[in-house]
Amino acid sequence: MKIEEILKRLELSAATGETGLDREADAGYCGDLLSDVMANAKKGALWLTIQSHQNIVAVAVLKEMAAIVLVNGRSPDEETKTKARAEGIPILLCPLPAFELAGRLYELGIGRP
Asked: Which backbone phi and psi does 29 adopt, to 5 degrees?
């Protein structure tokens, strides 16, 4: 499913995403420990996290993720937004906790075999 469709269907907002909303997301990953995400997240995943510093963008680029979703009402600082725009990584915002958002994504078919 395209990031843009997920954004609309789950009523998320975009902190960045001028480019990249046409990417396909076929998996998800919840994690706040960067080393864990680097070791276990899959290419094309939506990454749900509370981390909002600019290192999340580097990890998303390294793992070729579809987008980052900041949960629990978190939002990125300007440096993180600038880096995300430069790398073409959408950062989406969600007021829900990761567990609830993950369930809604699964209902949409994200991460199902």
From this structure: -150, 130
